């Protein structure tokens, strides 16, 4: 997938490019593209969803499970004297690389069993907001409005690649995975996900630690390491974050930080999981874990109802 990564990186590096131009970049195929522009007094962005139907996918009346891949990011670049793609662009790069690879696979009659739904947004002009230890790169709309646009009820499980380099929680150059989060519960990772990571990287699996703070809305005001599991607030599907990490702390707005082999392997991992999940071979968490937690403790979605204003 290195070619797809390089093509996407070159595409996004042109600040004039948005969702419509990316859709035109895809080869013809059965995929369905949905584009929703957003603009406010502090900026604009394009939300894009691309559904790739599977051989036995639900979009065609089948029963294979649907994988969602959300390329999470605040924005691709900031105004100022450093015009390149920011580190925060990583999630969008991985998500769109997956989309380009799937489109090319379909063109070669390499169709997966289950549907795959890619969702991200292309914000070519973001803005910084204070955060410890480094400012976040933010889109022109808050998380409580952005993430509901990124998730989709058709997703049976969600992978969320996102840059997460401004901390000391995982000190290696590569990507990691978080424990799955489902409706507020942080659950046990299934061994099939760890196996997929080991096979893709050729290295031991790396699990990124998250806390209860990370599964609450930004608007509550508590500290967040990252936003990669925030889609769980707006979905009943299990969510696994795929953080892109480094050996040293890296500013989210730093330019020149895209590591080709790291982002390529993260994208390859997402597609490998999507393949196995659609085939019924891979699982995000163990059967009974979620149901057992709900039975023992009841639902813990109070903050999620606040976030969704229901």
Written account of the structure:
This protein has one domain: Aminopeptidase (3-Layer(aba) Sandwich), CATH 3.40.630. 29% of the residues lie in helices and 18% in strands. The chain has helices spanning 2-12, 19-25, 90-107, 143-150, 191-201, 260-279, 289-297, 302-308, and strands spanning 32-40, 43-52, 67-71, 116-122, 127-129, 136-138, 157-163, 174-175, 181-182, 185-186, 239-245. A hairpin with a 2-residue loop joins strand 1 and strand 2. The model has no long low-confidence stretch (mean pLDDT 93).
Characteristics:
310 residues, alpha/beta, Aminopeptidase, 7-stranded mixed sheet, 8 helices, 11 strands, globular
* Average of pLDDT: 93
Do you know the CATH architecture?
3-Layer(aba) Sandwich
CATH class placement? Alpha Beta
* Count of alpha and pi helical runs: 8
Q: Please estimate the helix content.
A: 25-40%
User: What global shape is seen?
Assistant: globular
Which segments are poorly predicted (pLDDT under 50) over 5 or more consecutive residues?
none
The profile of the biggest β sheet is: 7 strands, mixed
Report strand order across the widest sheet: 1-2-4-3-7-11-8
Overall structural class, as computed from helix and strand content, comes to: alpha/beta
Number of strands: 11
Rg over C-alpha atoms, rounded to the nearest angstrom: 18 Å
């Amino acid at each position: 997938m290195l070619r797809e990564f390089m093509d996407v990186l070159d595409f996004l590096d042109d600040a004039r490019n948005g969702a419509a131009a990316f859709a035109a970049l895809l080869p013809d195929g059965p995929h369905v593209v949905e584009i929703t522009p957003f603009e406010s007094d502090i900026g604009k962005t394009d939300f894009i969803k691309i559904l790739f139907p599977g051989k036995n996918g639900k979009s065609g009346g089948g029963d294979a499970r649907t994988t969602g891949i959300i390329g999470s990011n605040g924005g691709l670049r900031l105004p100022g004297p450093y015009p390149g793609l920011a580190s925060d662009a990583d999630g969008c790069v991985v998500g769109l690389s997956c989309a380009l690879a799937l489109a090319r696979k379909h063109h070669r009659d390499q169709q997966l069993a289950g549907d795959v739904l890619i969702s991200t947004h292309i914000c070519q002009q973001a803005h910084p907001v204070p955060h410890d230890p480094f400012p976040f790169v933010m889109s022109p709309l808050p998380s409580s409005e952005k993430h509901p646009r990124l998730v989709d009820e058709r997703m049976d499980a969600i992978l969320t690649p996102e840059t997460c380099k401004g901390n000391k929680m995982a000190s290696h150059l590569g990507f990691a995975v978080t424990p799955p989060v489902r409706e507020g519960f942080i659950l046990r990772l299934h061994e099939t996900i760890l196996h997929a990571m080991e096979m893709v990287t050729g290295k031991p699996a790396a699990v990124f630690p998250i806390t209860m703070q990370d599964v609450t809305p930004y608007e509550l005001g508590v500290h967040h390491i990252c936003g990669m599991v925030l889609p769980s607030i707006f979905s009943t599907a299990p969510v696994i974050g795929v953080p892109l990490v480094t050996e040293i702390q890296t500013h989210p707005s730093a330019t020149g930080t895209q590591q080709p082999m790291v982002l390529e392997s993260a994208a390859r991992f997402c597609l490998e999981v999507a393949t196995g999940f659609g085939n019924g071979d891979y699982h995000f968490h163990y059967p009974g874990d979620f149901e057992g937690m709900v039975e023992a403790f009841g639902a813990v979605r109070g903050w999620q109802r606040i976030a969704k204003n229901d």
